[in-house]
Design a protein that fits this description.
The chain has 2 helices and 10 strands. With 205 residues, it is an alpha+beta fold. About 3% of the residues have low confidence.
């Protein structure tokens, strides 16, 4: 015959076994969750960079462009009147066109003047520069142009403004240079000579 005390002991033992099994199951569950593998993915971006270049070229005829990077290789401008034909009150015109090479980035141009040479005629001359729509540089197109160097300036004066120049030679800037021997020129100007080199400074943008 089983006593009540023995029955209570059996119940306690059974309860302990159940709790032990449950505890084991919880521990097993935690261990299983900890061993699950995590999924992952990656994304990358890469680029290669190459520097562009800025290069301008010039032409005295508005069509045949090449590089004239130094004073020694300056393009020879063709004025309407030959150097020996200057007389008081006359103005002679010459074209100087500039554009970017292809390839080249866009930029701006600054018209500057060098120091005149010769035997002293520069002191008696004045000049002006305007940008014109086409390549015909004469009194008519000059009058309709946009001022770069003010008329009547000394040969040492440069332009106060800059001109935009398109990338890859897409458009050219046509400078019309007008050199004048004023009507007030003294007799001492006769027989004198002048040489001048103009400089177009290009800057990338």
């Amino acid at each position: 015959m089983v006593t009540r005390r023995e029955m209570r002991e059996k119940r306690r033992l059974r309860s302990r076994r159940i709790r032990a099994l449950l505890a084991g199951g919880l521990v097993l569950g935690v261990g299983a969750a900890a061993t699950l593998a995590a999924w992952n993915d990656s994304e990358y971006g890469a680029a290669t960079f190459t520097a562009g270049r800025f290069d301008i070229v010039g032409a005295a005829d508005g069509a045949t462009f090449s590089s004239h990077a130094t004073t020694g290789t300056a393009s020879t401008l063709t004025f309407q009147l030959p150097p020996t034909a200057m007389a008081p009150g006359t103005t002679t015109y010459a074209l100087l066109s500039v554009k970017t090479a292809n390839p080249s980035v866009a930029g701006t141009l600054q018209f500057t003047a060098g120091t005149p040479g010769g035997t002293g005629l520069a002191a008696h001359l004045t000049y002006g520069v305007r940008t014109i729509a086409g390549t015909a540089c004469n009194a008519t197109t000059y009058a309709a142009g946009t001022s770069v160097v003010t008329d009547g300036s000394a040969l040492t004066a440069g332009g106060a403004s800059t001109q935009a120049v398109s990338a890859n030679g897409a458009a050219q800037v046509n400078y019309c240079i007008a050199v004048t021997l004023p009507t007030t020129a003294l007799n001492a100007a006769q027989g004198l000579t002048m040489t001048q080199t103009w400089h177009i400074q290009g800057t990338s943008s």
